[in-house]
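Q: Given only this backbone (194 positions), what sequence would you predict?
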Protein backbone atom coordinates (compact mmCIF):
# COMPACT_ATOMS: atom_id res chain seq x y z
CA UNK A 1 0.00 0.00 0.00
CA UNK A 2 1.50 3.33 -1.09
CA UNK A 3 0.81 6.51 0.89
CA UNK A 4 1.60 9.99 -0.34
CA UNK A 5 0.51 13.47 0.54
CA UNK A 6 0.53 16.61 -1.52
CA UNK A 7 -0.32 20.19 -0.75
CA UNK A 8 -1.36 22.51 -3.55
CA UNK A 9 -1.96 26.22 -3.06
CA UNK A 10 -4.60 27.84 -5.22
CA UNK A 11 -5.46 31.50 -4.65
CA UNK A 12 -3.61 31.40 -1.33
CA UNK A 13 -5.70 28.54 0.07
CA UNK A 14 -3.83 25.33 0.90
CA UNK A 15 -5.34 22.07 -0.28
CA UNK A 16 -4.11 18.97 1.52
CA UNK A 17 -4.42 15.75 -0.46
CA UNK A 18 -3.63 12.38 1.15
CA UNK A 19 -3.61 9.46 -1.26
CA UNK A 20 -3.71 5.76 -0.38
CA UNK A 21 -2.87 3.27 -3.15
CA UNK A 22 -5.23 0.31 -2.97
CA UNK A 23 -4.20 -3.30 -3.52
CA UNK A 24 -6.09 -6.49 -4.35
CA UNK A 25 -9.38 -6.22 -6.27
CA UNK A 26 -9.19 -2.42 -6.18
CA UNK A 27 -5.63 -2.27 -7.58
CA UNK A 28 -5.25 0.68 -9.91
CA UNK A 29 -7.56 2.80 -7.77
CA UNK A 30 -6.67 5.20 -5.01
CA UNK A 31 -8.63 6.76 -2.19
CA UNK A 32 -8.06 10.48 -1.89
CA UNK A 33 -8.79 12.37 1.31
CA UNK A 34 -9.11 16.08 0.67
CA UNK A 35 -9.07 18.89 3.22
CA UNK A 36 -9.80 22.17 1.50
CA UNK A 37 -12.52 24.24 3.11
CA UNK A 38 -12.19 22.73 6.56
CA UNK A 39 -14.53 19.88 5.66
CA UNK A 40 -12.60 16.70 4.81
CA UNK A 41 -13.93 14.59 1.98
CA UNK A 42 -12.88 11.23 0.61
CA UNK A 43 -13.03 10.40 -3.08
CA UNK A 44 -12.00 7.43 -5.16
CA UNK A 45 -9.66 7.93 -8.09
CA UNK A 46 -9.10 5.35 -10.78
CA UNK A 47 -6.96 5.29 -13.88
CA UNK A 48 -8.02 3.00 -16.70
CA UNK A 49 -7.64 2.48 -20.40
CA UNK A 50 -10.70 2.82 -22.61
CA UNK A 51 -11.01 -0.98 -22.90
CA UNK A 52 -11.07 -1.33 -19.09
CA UNK A 53 -14.06 0.98 -18.66
CA UNK A 54 -17.47 -0.72 -18.46
CA UNK A 55 -19.90 0.61 -21.07
CA UNK A 56 -22.05 2.64 -18.64
CA UNK A 57 -19.01 4.22 -16.98
CA UNK A 58 -17.56 5.12 -20.38
CA UNK A 59 -20.94 6.63 -21.32
CA UNK A 60 -20.94 8.75 -18.12
CA UNK A 61 -17.42 9.97 -18.84
CA UNK A 62 -18.07 10.90 -22.47
CA UNK A 63 -21.43 12.46 -21.64
CA UNK A 64 -19.84 14.71 -19.00
CA UNK A 65 -17.21 15.86 -21.47
CA UNK A 66 -19.75 16.57 -24.20
CA UNK A 67 -22.10 18.33 -21.75
CA UNK A 68 -19.30 20.65 -20.58
CA UNK A 69 -16.99 21.11 -23.57
CA UNK A 70 -19.57 21.11 -26.37
CA UNK A 71 -22.95 22.10 -24.88
CA UNK A 72 -22.06 24.34 -21.89
CA UNK A 73 -19.21 26.10 -23.70
CA UNK A 74 -21.33 26.33 -26.87
CA UNK A 75 -18.45 24.94 -28.91
CA UNK A 76 -19.45 22.43 -31.57
CA UNK A 77 -16.31 20.38 -32.23
CA UNK A 78 -15.48 16.67 -32.51
CA UNK A 79 -15.10 15.71 -28.82
CA UNK A 80 -14.51 12.10 -29.85
CA UNK A 81 -11.15 12.77 -31.50
CA UNK A 82 -9.67 9.27 -31.71
CA UNK A 83 -7.17 9.91 -28.90
CA UNK A 84 -9.26 8.23 -26.19
CA UNK A 85 -8.44 4.79 -27.58
CA UNK A 86 -4.76 5.00 -26.55
CA UNK A 87 -5.28 7.25 -23.51
CA UNK A 88 -5.57 6.57 -19.82
CA UNK A 89 -8.69 7.99 -18.21
CA UNK A 90 -8.41 9.32 -14.68
CA UNK A 91 -11.77 9.53 -12.92
CA UNK A 92 -12.71 11.11 -9.61
CA UNK A 93 -15.66 9.30 -8.04
CA UNK A 94 -17.81 9.48 -4.95
CA UNK A 95 -19.43 6.07 -4.70
CA UNK A 96 -20.55 5.37 -8.26
CA UNK A 97 -21.01 9.07 -9.12
CA UNK A 98 -18.53 10.59 -11.55
CA UNK A 99 -17.38 13.96 -10.17
CA UNK A 100 -14.65 14.75 -12.67
CA UNK A 101 -12.12 13.31 -15.09
CA UNK A 102 -8.91 13.93 -17.01
CA UNK A 103 -7.25 12.23 -19.95
CA UNK A 104 -3.57 11.25 -20.01
CA UNK A 105 -1.74 10.66 -23.28
CA UNK A 106 1.56 8.78 -23.25
CA UNK A 107 4.65 10.31 -24.90
CA UNK A 108 4.82 9.52 -28.63
CA UNK A 109 8.62 9.41 -28.62
CA UNK A 110 10.98 8.79 -25.66
CA UNK A 111 11.84 12.51 -25.38
CA UNK A 112 8.27 13.78 -25.87
CA UNK A 113 6.05 14.94 -23.01
CA UNK A 114 3.11 13.06 -21.64
CA UNK A 115 -0.07 15.12 -21.97
CA UNK A 116 -2.94 15.91 -19.65
CA UNK A 117 -6.16 17.01 -21.28
CA UNK A 118 -9.94 16.99 -21.12
CA UNK A 119 -9.81 18.03 -17.44
CA UNK A 120 -13.47 18.35 -16.46
CA UNK A 121 -15.49 18.71 -13.26
CA UNK A 122 -19.20 17.97 -13.16
CA UNK A 123 -21.25 21.19 -13.04
CA UNK A 124 -23.06 19.71 -10.02
CA UNK A 125 -19.77 19.54 -8.07
CA UNK A 126 -18.01 22.79 -8.87
CA UNK A 127 -16.76 25.00 -6.06
CA UNK A 128 -15.32 22.04 -4.12
CA UNK A 129 -11.79 22.44 -5.55
CA UNK A 130 -12.07 19.13 -7.36
CA UNK A 131 -10.05 20.56 -10.26
CA UNK A 132 -7.12 20.80 -7.83
CA UNK A 133 -7.59 17.15 -6.88
CA UNK A 134 -7.84 16.06 -10.52
CA UNK A 135 -4.67 17.93 -11.47
CA UNK A 136 -2.74 16.65 -8.46
CA UNK A 137 -3.70 13.09 -9.31
CA UNK A 138 -3.08 13.48 -13.07
CA UNK A 139 0.39 14.92 -12.41
CA UNK A 140 1.13 12.12 -9.95
CA UNK A 141 0.06 9.52 -12.54
CA UNK A 142 2.28 11.09 -15.21
CA UNK A 143 5.22 11.22 -12.79
CA UNK A 144 4.71 7.57 -11.85
CA UNK A 145 4.21 6.30 -15.42
CA UNK A 146 6.59 8.59 -17.33
CA UNK A 147 9.14 9.84 -14.75
CA UNK A 148 11.68 11.07 -17.32
CA UNK A 149 9.23 13.08 -19.44
CA UNK A 150 7.87 16.59 -19.02
CA UNK A 151 4.09 17.01 -18.88
CA UNK A 152 2.30 19.18 -21.43
CA UNK A 153 -1.21 20.52 -21.79
CA UNK A 154 -3.20 22.88 -23.94
CA UNK A 155 -4.94 25.16 -21.44
CA UNK A 156 -7.91 27.39 -21.98
CA UNK A 157 -6.24 30.78 -21.61
CA UNK A 158 -8.46 31.92 -18.72
CA UNK A 159 -7.14 28.95 -16.68
CA UNK A 160 -3.47 29.87 -17.09
CA UNK A 161 -2.96 30.85 -13.43
CA UNK A 162 -4.67 27.67 -12.26
CA UNK A 163 -2.18 25.53 -14.20
CA UNK A 164 0.75 27.75 -13.20
CA UNK A 165 -0.10 26.92 -9.57
CA UNK A 166 0.86 23.30 -10.43
CA UNK A 167 4.23 24.28 -11.93
CA UNK A 168 3.22 24.60 -15.58
CA UNK A 169 4.75 27.41 -17.63
CA UNK A 170 3.48 28.90 -20.88
CA UNK A 171 5.46 27.86 -23.94
CA UNK A 172 3.33 29.46 -26.65
CA UNK A 173 1.43 32.59 -27.42
CA UNK A 174 -2.33 32.53 -27.02
CA UNK A 175 -4.12 30.93 -29.99
CA UNK A 176 -7.67 29.98 -30.91
CA UNK A 177 -8.70 26.34 -30.81
CA UNK A 178 -12.31 25.69 -31.78
CA UNK A 179 -13.02 29.38 -31.17
CA UNK A 180 -11.69 29.35 -27.57
CA UNK A 181 -8.38 31.06 -26.59
CA UNK A 182 -5.77 28.48 -25.53
CA UNK A 183 -2.12 28.45 -24.52
CA UNK A 184 0.37 25.56 -24.53
CA UNK A 185 1.99 24.85 -21.17
CA UNK A 186 4.70 22.45 -19.94
CA UNK A 187 5.75 21.20 -16.51
CA UNK A 188 9.22 19.70 -16.13
CA UNK A 189 9.58 16.55 -14.07
CA UNK A 190 11.59 16.77 -10.86
CA UNK A 191 14.29 14.58 -12.46
CA UNK A 192 14.82 17.08 -15.30
CA UNK A 193 16.69 20.36 -15.31
CA UNK A 194 14.42 23.39 -15.67
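A: Predicted residues:
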Amino acid sequence: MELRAAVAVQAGKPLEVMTVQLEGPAAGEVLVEVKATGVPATYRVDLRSLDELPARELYDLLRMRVDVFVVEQNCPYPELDGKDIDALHLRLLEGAELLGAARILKPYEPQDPSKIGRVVVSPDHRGKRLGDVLMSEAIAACERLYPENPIALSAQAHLRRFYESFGFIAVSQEYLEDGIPHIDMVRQQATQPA
